[in-house]
Amino acid sequence: MKQRNEQDAPKLVSEFALEALLYEASLYPKPGLVDPKSCGAHADMNYSTFIDSSTALAPFLSEYVELGFDHDASPSILFEKVRALGQQAEAAMLRKTHGVNTHKGANFSFALLLSATGKIINDKQLQIPFTKQDTADVFNYVKQMTKGLLSKDFSGLAHKKHLSYGEKLYLEHGIVGIRGEAELGYPSLNDSALPFLREHYKRDQRMLFLILLLHLMAMVEDSNLINRGGIAAWQTVQKQAAELLQTLSVNSSEKELEQALILFDQQLIEENLSPGGSADLIALSFFFCRLEGLF
């Protein structure tokens, strides 16, 4: 990849983020999820809805990077700025999709990670592609941005009359969702997804990300699955994904992998289950792979 100076980097970073959203939507076949050939377990959205949603978020992706790039105060202040902008982005997304929530979780994570990326680029005068350490610095900065987020957002829940589903999950089961992932610096990406992709990036890209999706489904705390089917259904899907990984790998044939995932998709559609949290992490993984020049 051609080396660019730090002044060009913010534009390139936001382009990578938009590519990541479009890549995740285009990846096929994804169990329970929307792709070009299936609506998954979603009666209210399809592939076109995700394209519309991505285009609505595109200008905000650039703004997230610029917010971080221009930021010279504390990480917590950047978080407040980004959260306010993220709410505007979410509203724009919902207008474009006529109220359908396609990218709420992805928008939250990209807001954090893109602003942190912009901040790290400016502070370290970085060029693209990133090194593994540059990426780790982004995750560390997100940890600083979100320090205490769970305790702040979930304080006083026991006395709150009307709880969101996420608040109920936290109160009843200790499920921390994407907030917890962010406050820990995205360990599912930093410790699992990205090491896997760095090791195997020379393999077929589509096959690689489909196997990664199964890895994520087997390990992450997916509040989308829990929301639709409850704790037991989420744990069952985790177990099934892990069992598939015992027979499938990056060395499997394309036909073998496709057939297994199409069957899994049909099952999750029947059970109205969608691993949307894992899908968001696929997009984020692709983004960092582009940032590091792996693809």
Automatic annotation (TrEMBL):
Pfam families: CitG. It comes from Enterococcus silesiacus. Its EC number is 2.4.2.52. Keywords: ATP-binding, Nucleotide-binding, Transferase. InterPro entries: CitG, TriPribosyl-deP-CoA_syn_CitG. Belongs to the CitG/MdcB family. It catalyses: 3'-dephospho-CoA + ATP = 2'-(5''-triphospho-alpha-D-ribosyl)-3'-dephospho-CoA + adenine. PANTHER family: 2-(5''-TRIPHOSPHORIBOSYL)-3'-DEPHOSPHOCOENZYME-A SYNTHASE, TRIPHOSPHORIBOSYL-DEPHOSPHO-COA SYNTHASE. The lineage of its organism: Bacteria, Bacillati, Bacillota, Bacilli, Lactobacillales. The keyword Metal-binding does not apply. This is Probable 2-(5''-triphosphoribosyl)-3'-dephosphocoenzyme-A synthase. It comes from the Bacteria.
